[in-house]
Amino acid sequence: MRLFYWGIILIIIGLSLFVLSAYQGEGGFVLFLIFPVFYSTGVWGLAAILLIFVGFLLIFISPFYESSHISTYQPHFEERKEENIVEKRTEKHYGGVVLIGPIPIIFGSDRNMVMLSILAVILILVAIGILFILLS
């Protein structure tokens, strides 16, 4: 899980460097169709792109890295009885959205997660619309 958090931190730092680059006049933001594009001619923009790339890479490999380092250590208790062991099972729910252009593809494991994903996609599309109006 640590790699995931490091990836998030690197992406936030990279976005901050994008803003710094634009503030210093070395780069800028444009909206091409519905895709935000950043361009830069300076070192800060290059550092931002590299940090964001490494951040996404860390986020992508974090589940594989963490699953290969699962601890198998279990302390030995001499008076351990099988009837005293209670297993806790938690049911995992998932949901997600894939935006292909302005068209959302929504999936989930149950109705609540699908509704939460629909709410998230509505908020994202409204935010994109507001940014489009403000930036044009």
What brief labels describe this structure?
54% helix; 2 domains; two-stranded antiparallel ribbon; 3 helices; single chain; 136 residues
Topology, please?
Layout: H1 2-23, E1 27-32, E2 35-40, H2 43-68, E3 95-100, E4 103-108, H3 111-135
Antiparallel strand pairs: 1-2, 3-4
Helix pairs in contact: 1-2
How many helices? The count is 3
- Ranges with pLDDT <50 over ≥5 residues? none
**Structural domain tally:** 2
Strand order of the largest sheet: 1-2
Mean pLDDT: 81
Q: Determine the strand fraction and express it as a percent band.
A: 15-25%
Give the H and E element order.
HEEHEEH
Main sheet, how many strands, which sense, barrel? 2 strands, antiparallel
Give a written overview of the molecule.
With 136 residues, this protein is an alpha+beta fold. The chain folds into two domains: 1-70, no CATH class; 94-136, no CATH class. Helix content is 54%, strand content 18%. The chain contains three helices and four strands, in the order αββαββα. The strands form two sheets. It has a two-stranded antiparallel ribbon with strand order 1-2. A two-stranded antiparallel ribbon has the order 3-4. Helix 1 runs antiparallel to helix 2. The chain is flat, with a radius of gyration of 22 Å. The model has no long low-confidence stretch (mean pLDDT 81).
In short:
With 136 residues, the protein is of the alpha+beta class. 54% of the residues lie in helices and 18% in strands.
